[in-house]
Specification:
Layout: H1 17-35, H2 40-75, H3 79-95
Helix pairs in contact: 1-2
Amino acid sequence: MSACHSKNKHPDHSGEMSRLNRILGQIDGVKKMIKERRYCPDIITQLRAINSATKAVERRLLETHLEACVSETFKAKNKKGQQQKIEELIKLFKKFD
């Protein structure tokens, strides 16, 4: 098991909490807009902003994973672990294809 699977060594993503809280606020705003029967394009604009914000969080998490967990496995020259990381990423990307 790689260090990134260990609870003590897993990268810290707590910096994303403020961004996620902001996204929650945006979602609450959209719910309010719907209740108020606001203009459709205005609601869609807010939904697109939420989508963009969640993609940004996802990108940062992926970057951290690559820079920490994947990089660590390749530095250790662990061939089996390297193959597992590659397969893990392929599987992850296929889920959302």
